[in-house]
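Researcher: Quick sanity check before group meeting.
Model: Go ahead. Protein one:
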Amino acid sequence: MHVDFVSSMRRLLCLAVLVVPVVGTAARADPGYSILWRAAGAVQRAEPIWHFVTATVMNVPKLLDEELGVAGGDWRRPGENGAEVHVSVMLHRVSSAQAITRWMSDNLRRVRNDQWKLSPYDLGDRATLATLDDTYRHVMQYELSFQRGKLLATVSGRSMPDVERLARYVLAEMKEQ
């Protein structure tokens, strides 16, 4: 019985060694990652204090039914009092620009809750800015969602100047797929 258990564990370990790298590779194979890495490179050259970390596996529900893939990550830099500043980015590839336009129009009419405020914003083909005054944690949260063709990006963080500046780097790399 001991031999069967050891043999089973070896097979399971071999399977894990073969499958885990494939899952990580498949997630990074999304073309959105190349856009994010190009934007990260531009940020690193201009503002070396920022470091970009990609999400290895984007296991999130689809934002739109027409979504083809998603890539994401986080920019990080040292902040005040030893705290780290984070700005998150998600890039969705969608089958049609019209689906993104429809989603953004619907999003402007929808309110997440009475604390979030949504408004149009001037960035890319179409954009919205969502702001949250989180009185419980005493912070502001900003989220810029913007479109270029069949790509939809969302950049969010607690500093509007950081969010907008990093969003512009992403926008500059969002060429039509």
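Researcher: Fine. The other one?
Model: Protein two, sequence then structure:
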Amino acid sequence: MNKLGTIKPEKADIALLCVSIFCGLIIIGTAITSKLLSTQHGLLICEPRGIALGTVQQAEAIPFEFTIHNKEKVPFKITEVIKPCSCASIDVPVDLVIGSMSSQRFSGALRTTDRRGHYDTSVMINYEVQNFQVSHSKAKAKMLLKLPISVEVLPSIKASQEVIEISRAREVLLTLSPGTSNDFAINNIEVSDHFIKYEPLISKLGIRDTHFQVRLRLDKPTDTDAFGSGSGQELGRYWIEFKTSEEMEPSIRLPITIGTDSS
């Protein structure tokens, strides 16, 4: 340092270089940490990326298999497995560690009893880096691996309408017919609300046949004013349910929407 208290040019250059190196290391470290903690893309990979079970009949369980790959240089621990419902089973245990640069194969099953038509769902697997020591507030943040599952289920009993719309002036004739079954019996009928009236036609309750028809209507025209109508309704709020003789589909619940009548 000279008499004026300023840093000599060569020392100033060295100081600037040190600061630049330090900042560069911070940037590189942040980038590496960001990559390891990324939740948007995930670091574990499923193969296949999704399970397509195709077209199946209603059955107790449709099996499937998949592999989880870890292509990173750090191990990951499974912290949580979230199933969409009791209809899905999967053999990925919580606290399982998938080692670096390794793969593990798993199996699962989807129960399609009571399912009808196209059905989409997903299994969610949360995981975190195992024994990864960094001074970062998100070092233990959960990362997500999503496994989509899709299936087309052929019902034991087909319905002429899967979603029924009735209104003040409109009655609906609903027909049930064999799907994968040859014949069937409807043992009982229930509805969500007292103002939804039904009248069985052709067949009687508890008698096996190849068809079952029921006429649906609203009890009173003024009832629609009390609960609203149209797209504002939550699908499934109103319904009709048939108790059947079929083991794979002991009940059929069809949603009902209340429509409006044009004046």
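Researcher: One line on it for the slide.
Model: Residues 22 and 254 are 66 Å apart (CA to CA).
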